[in-house]
Amino acid sequence: MNVFLALTFSGIALGAVYFLAASGLSLIYGLMDILNFAHGLFMTLGAYVAWDVASHLPASWGAPLLFVIALVASILGGALAAGLTEVIIIRPLYGRPIGQILVTIGLDLAVVGLLLGGFGSNSLSVPVPLWLIEASHVGGLSLPNSDFVALVAGVIVLVSLELFLRQTRYGITIRAGVENRDMVSALGINVGRAFTLVFVIGGAMAGLAGLLYAVVFSGDLISPTQGDSLLIFAFIVVVIGGLGSIRGSAVAALIVGLVQDYANFYLGSHPGMAEIGNLSVVLLLALVLEWRPRGLFGSTL
Amino acid sequence: MTSAVSITDLHVTIAGSHVLQGVSIEVPVGGVTALLGRNGVGKTTTLRALLGLVPSTGAISVLGTDVRGWPTHRIVRLGVGYVPEDRDVFAGLTVAENLRLAERIDEPRYDDVYAIFPELAERTRQRAGTLSGGQQQMVSIARALLNGWPLLLVDEPSKGLAPRLVSELADTLERVASLATVLLVEQNLAVVRRLAERIVVLDHGEVVHAGDAVELADPELARRFLGVTGAR
Question: Tell me, what CATH number does B142's domain have?
Answer without folding.
Answer: 3.40.50.300
